[in-house]
Amino acid sequence: MNNSIQARPGLLGRVRSRQSGLPTGLLGRFFGRAMEGATADSNDRALAMLDLSQPRTVLDVGFGQGRTASVLLGDGHRVIGVDASPTMVKQATARNRAACRDGRATIRHGDGITIPFPDDSADAAITAHTIYFMPDPTATIAEIARVLRPGGTLAIACRTSDTPAAAWIDPEVYRIPTVAQVIAMLHAAGFDPIEHQPGDASNGDIHCFAARLPSGAS
Ligand SMILES: C[S@@+](CC[C@H](N)C(=O)[O-])C[C@H]1O[C@@H](n2cnc3c(N)ncnc32)[C@H](O)[C@@H]1O
Fold first, then answer.
1. In angstroms, what is the span from residue 165 Cα to ligand 1's centroid?
2. What is the pTM of this model?
3. Is residue 102 in some structural domain?
4. How far is the CA of 32 from the centre of ligand 1 (A)?
């Protein structure tokens, strides 16, 4: 992750970066909601790259405020998810309360190193605007592969360091990968093929990747 030449932003940028990475407390609740407008479009682009034409169980790693979970539940899917922020676990649970109560959604706290769901328990997965904050993204992507069934698909939405980062982004919080690094992490976890939709000025420089595990059939 090569953002070493990027300068640190001022106080507001540092706070925004920190709260994006781990929304915490009252300020975190505000950032959770504010984040929704900024990330909805790229989450929808990433979801569109998954095969969700039939009801599926979808794993959301780093679900934040829970907007994507609501979209999936509204479309008839089940959601299992994990997020490192207790504030976001509360916010996403409150937002999807009925589905959490009746078992269509299972929302857990966790750091992504160990995902608290059994092998083969999801058909598809999404992780959006999260990869920069993970202590070991390669390990998390391998964990996602473990939780996905054979033939399962993963969509990732993220910035990449192939283009300059926005001025508010704190390089001490955001460890932004290159496109090649994202693809290498997916390959290392056994995903193939991998589709890449580039980020550009029209989509806020947010890249989307969709990758499939082998079906297991020989
Ligand atoms: C910028 S927000 C994105 C939220 C949501 N995915 C979206 O696109 O709106 C990043 C989220 O990732 C979560 N997060 C950060 N590190 C994580 C980790 N290691 N495992 C799971 N979630 C993590 C944060 O708590 C936060 O909710």
1. 18
2. 0.96
3. yes
4. 10
Distance 98 CA to ligand 1 centre (A): 22
Number of domains composing the chain: 1
Residue that has been written with the tokens 């709260």 in this structure:
19
| pLDDT tens readout for residues 53-73 | 999 999 999 999 999 999 999
Gap between the Cα atoms of 4 and 173, Å rounded: 12
15-42 pLDDT, tens digit each: 999 999 999 999 999 999 998 999 999 9
CATH number at residue 35: 3.40.50.150
Question: Would 4 be classed as within a structural domain?
Answer: no
Residue 2 lies in a domain: no
Which residue minimizes the CA distance to atom 4 of ligand 1? 64
Domain span including residue 29: 11-212
Report the candidate in 77, 82, 92 with the shortest Cα–Cα distance to residue 123: 77
Question: Could you identify the residue written with the tokens 């539940």?
Answer: 73
